[in-house]
Structure formats: structure tokens, C-alpha cells
Design goal:
The complex is a heterodimer of chains A (234) and B (204). Chain A is an alpha+beta fold. Chain A has 6 helices and 10 strands; from the N terminus they run ααββαββββαββββαα. Chain B is mainly α. Classes of the chains: A alpha+beta (234), B mainly alpha (204).
Chain lengths: 234, 204
């Protein structure tokens, strides 16, 4: 057969595409369960990180079942939603809905010393792609106990610094409520202060848009928890 | 060409980055820290070597008019498989690399080696050529990443290297180092040093 002819070329291209497509399909399907398991372990790791535990991939599942004693979904009125699993709620699509329609997952952690922390998930947009995180709040529903931030593709050394513990530790001890009104922690350039009187942390230098994204994410994701957070104060 | 020359040539006199000036875009994007530079280097070595072997095996069957497309499909399929395997067995590494794995498809070195070498050589030579060029690329990436992380963040692989005492004396990290333009300038400095050692590379 003439190797430079049209028939050969078309046949070659078709066969190649079919083989490659089949190969990729096989790879994708056969690796899916392992990838799903990894994603779940990773999520448990992230949740645990927000209460300042240091889980590894190996012990994340064990630590999660030890420390996360309860998890449930609430609505914007602070009432529990029956039959919803907090772990499988897709926060990414929830944050796009109006506050009243959202399903708001809450993870309850009980630490070694008996302290109870409420872990709230967040999701937003950075410069290049999505960013997400978890904020752990003390039993007073106000003081931040720990935070965890992650991103998909922010610039290393710049926006990606939100993953850095030094950025995340700034949130510890900040308050979500100022004089009884919910004003989530702002992320400001060094030397600036938020106009609404909220507490604030320093932004990442060189990562202005990512920092702004973190602030928007905190605001958008946490404001619907307003009623819930007020209700947990005994 | 001897096999040894095929493997080691791209490390210096035939370096894809500083002599052929290929793959510059990813050298800018991933080198602000040392760690992604290293992982990117390893991934590129794997992809170039494997793609070279596959194309070399197919070289007598590929119709000339669609050879670039065939090369692209092979490279893209390999990169996706690498990405999927990383996600299944090395999830932490794959999270770190995120978009960089996909960027390998667009790395000119991969296509350049397929076109220039694998289409006209046997699988073993092509494999060596791929490893050699991957190493040559990785070497530059690691050097650039080393200087940018050291001078830009004062750390190496995330560990603090520059002692706190320096900062107390008024030393400051150079913020410009972590911005992309400095990657170009560092690469230019490497080219400068390299050419002053290898006078035969200097243009008249």
C-alpha cells in the first residue's frame, strides 16, 4: 500500500485515534477507584489540618474517625438538614447559590483536651483557578482556632503562598464577629485596614489577586453560617 | 554519533535550553521554587524518553503529511497517562505539579526531539537522546530554581537556608527573583557563563 496516499493516511489516523482513545479509557476507568480514594483521604487530611493536627496520607483516615466526632448539614437559618451527608456536599456548587438555598456542611471535631471545634468549608476563585479551605472555629462560634487553604494552580512563590503555614497561622485567634455583627476576617495589603472594622490579616506580597480571592472566599462562604454560629453559643 | 555523545551532548554543548533556546516558557513558569523544578525535570525526562521510543518504533509507518499530528497525539496521550498514574499512586506529587504536567505537552523540546531525532533513529538511540535532552533541560531548571528560591525566598526545598541573623542585620529577600522576568535573566547569566567557557559556541 502506498504509505503517502490518502487512503493510508486516513486509515492510519483513524486506527491511531481509536487505539489511543481505548487506551486512555482503560487507564481512566481502572485508576478511578484509587483516585477517588486518594481524593477522600486528601479531603480528610485538609479538614484535620484546619484544627492544627498534622495528618499524613497514612494516618488521615484513622485520625479523622478519632477526632471528627460529628458532621451535619445546616441551612442559612441554622437548622439541621435531614438526610444530607456533610462529607459529600459539593461546596464548589453550593457557594454559587443564594445564601438561603445553600447546604452548609459542618464538621465537629473533639480534640484530646475535650475542646469542641466547628470546621466550616470554603470555596472560591484565585488568580488562575479555584482556591478552597477550611476554617475551624472555637465553641464560642467566634474565635478562629485554625485555618487551612489550598489552591489548584496559583503561582509558586506568589499566590501559592496561601498554602504556607505562616499565612494560615495569621488567622488563629482572629474573631468573626465584631460587636455582635458578623464581619469575616479580611485579607489586606500590609498597612491597610478594612473599612467595615473587621479584623484582618496580611495579604501575600506579589499575590494580590489571590489574596483578594481568599478574602472574597471567606466572606462568601462564611456569611451564611451567621445564624448557625450565633446558635452554637450556649 | 556515539551513544555516549547522544546521551551527554545535550547536557552542555547541545543543551536544549541554553544553546537551542527551546522550552523557555516552562523554565519561566515552574522555577520560582526548587521543588517544582525538580519534579518538572523528572516528568519531562520521562515524557521525552517514552515519546521518543514510541515515535521511533512507529517511524516507518507514519504518513509524512500527518506526522506532526501523530507526534502530538502520542505526547498528549503519554502526558495524560502520566497525570492519571500520578493521581492514583502519588496523589501528593500530582497535587503539587497540578497544571505543570499538562504544560509538558506544549514543551517545544518534546516535539523538537521527535521531529529532529526519533523520526530518523532507532528506539535505543532515541531513548538515550530523550533522556539526555530531558537531563539537559532539567539541569538548567534546577540551577535557575536554586538561585530563584535562595535569593527570592531565602529557602531551599522549603527549608530556611539564610540564617535569621542576616535578616536582623537588614538583609532582605529579593522579591524580584520570584517574578518571571528574573528567570530569563538567570537563564541569560547561565548562557553567558557557558559561552565564555565554550568559545566555539560564540557567534562571530
Amino acid at each position: 500500500m502506498n504509505k503517502q496516499g490518502n487512503t493510508y493516511t486516513i486509515l492510519y489516523a483513524s486506527v491511531m485515534v481509536i487505539i489511543v482513545a481505548a487506551l486512555l479509557a482503560v487507564v481512566s476507568v481502572s485508576l478511578k477507584p484509587m483516585q477517588q480514594a486518594n481524593i477522600e483521604i486528601d479531603k480528610k487530611k485538609q479538614i484535620l489540618s484546619s484544627v492544627n493536627l498534622a495528618p499524613t496520607t497514612q494516618n488521615a483516615v484513622e485520625l479523622y474517625s478519632k477526632y471528627i466526632t460529628d458532621s451535619y448539614v445546616v441551612d442559612a437559618q441554622g437548622a439541621k438538614v435531614e438526610g444530607a451527608d456533610a462529607f459529600t456536599v459539593d461546596v464548589a456548587s453550593e457557594v454559587k447559590k443564594a445564601n438561603e438555598e445553600r447546604q452548609l456542611p459542618v464538621f465537629v471535631a473533639q480534640l484530646d483536651n475535650g475542646d469542641v471545634k466547628y470546621i466550616l468549608p470554603m470555596y472560591g476563585a484565585g488568580l488562575w483557578g479555584p482556591i478552597w479551605g477550611y476554617i475551624a472555629v472555637d465553641a464560642d462560634g467566634n474565635t478562629i482556632y485554625g485555618s487551612y487553604f489550598a489552591h489548584q494552580g496559583e503561582t509558586p512563590g506568589l499566590g501559592a503562598e496561601i498554602e504556607n503555614p505562616t499565612f494560615q497561622q495569621q488567622f488563629i485567634g482572629k474573631h468573626l464577629f465584631v460587636e455582635g455583627e458578623m464581619k469575616p476576617v479580611a485579607v489586606m495589603k500590609v498597612g491597610q485596614k478594612p473599612l467595615n472594622g473587621a479584623e484582618y490579616v496580611d495579604a501575600v506580597s506579589g499575590g494580590t489577586i489571590t489574596s483578594k480571592g481568599v478574602q472574597d472566599m471567606i466572606e462568601n462562604s462564611l456569611l451564611p453560617y451567621n445564624v448557625f454560629l450565633k446558635s452554637i453559643v450556649k | 554519533m556515539k551513544n555516549k555523545e547522544i546521551l551527554l551532548g545535550p547536557l552542555s554543548k547541545n543543551n536544549p535550553v541554553i544553546v537551542q533556546v527551546l522550552g523557555i516558557c516552562s523554565a519561566l513558569a515552574v522555577t520560582s521554587k526548587l521543588e517544582p523544578s525538580i519534579v518538572m525535570a523528572i516528568s519531562v525526562i520521562a515524557v521525552v524518553a517514552l515519546a521518543n521510543v514510541v515515535i521511533s518504533l512507529l517511524r516507518n509507518t507514519i504518513p509524512n503529511s500527518i506526522r506532526i499530528i501523530v507526534q502530538l497525539v502520542v505526547v498528549a496521550a503519554l502526558v495524560i497517562i502520566v497525570d492519571q498514574v500520578l493521581k492514583a499512586f502519588a496523589y501528593d506529587v500530582s497535587k503539587q505539579l497540578s497544571v505543570f504536567v499538562g504544560l509538558i505537552i506544549t514543551n517545544c523540546i518534546v516535539m523538537g526531539r521527535l521531529e529532529a531525532f526519533a523520526l530518523s533513529h532507532g528506539p535505543w538511540e532515541s531513548f538515550l537522546d530523550g533522556v539526555g535532552n530531558g537531563l539537559g533541560y532539567g539541569l538548567i531548571l534546577v540551577i535557575v530554581g536554586f538561585f530563584r528560591e535562595l535569593l527570592g525566598s531565602g529557602t531551599l526545598l522549603g527549608f530556611q537556608v539564610i540564617p535569621q541573623a542576616f535578616y536582623e542585620l537588614g538583609y532582605m529577600n529579593n522579591g524580584l527573583m520570584i517574578l518571571p522576568p528574573m528567570a530569563l535573566i538567570v537563564v541569560a547569566c547561565i548562557i553567558w557563563v557557558h559561552r565564555s567557557y565554550n568559545k566555539d559556541l560564540q557567534e562571530k
